[in-house]
């Protein structure tokens, strides 16, 4: 099914430019709960209820044996079923998915992403994934290392429960976003990323007028002002090439919500969540068909004028 989605939908959409630049592709990944139509208690196969015995230990039939209990963090409630995990092209303004996977409801998104990422790289050797936009559930050091091994920049929201558990313990004082704090207790200014030395340059916040700095006599005597460098290798989570919290970082991370709109299209618009299926295979089949339709909708919207002309229907231009 993954190969069908790729060959019949993703590759044609890519050739039409609907996914973005295949040599510089940003992706967004997330999971969404899917409630099964099966009962967590199963169906009794005995005649005990007819005899007034309702709490027997007899065998039962479970129509969806792979379903289990999971936590829906958005609605803050438990659900019984599966989790639909999607990886969507963040550069696609049609919110087009390129990878789908159904897992048990109890599985954490950070665990799912690990093998989903490996499968994605094997499935799409023709794509170069430059950025990965993920929510705080993926704020795990091993995921940063996994992405860094593929030269993919990680744009991951910080998990508040991980505060104070950074690897870096060097001489610099940094805030939660990895910005060095100068001796005047002010965040330093980002001065770009040095690709040659793989380090981030930070400059004095009062470099224009050092007389405004209360700690100027104790700081660097250089007219250029104090300069420090941080390296992503010190702590991949904190020292990101594009500083977390900066305007550039926020502009890129804003596209993470594209995967949420993918779920809305699959589960709501195509009414997959109303199917109440009782098998993860059936769930995955219907979700894949919905994903194929998403790509077809985007392709038809792009090619509609040429399609109509081929069948002899004249189109009226907007200028007319």
From TrEMBL:
Residues 66-282 form the Transposase IS4-like domain. Pfam families: DDE_Tnp_1. InterPro entries: Transposase_11 (IPR002559). It comes from the Bacteria. This is Transposase IS4-like domain-containing protein. It comes from Syntrophomonas wolfei subsp. wolfei (strain DSM 2245B / Goettingen).
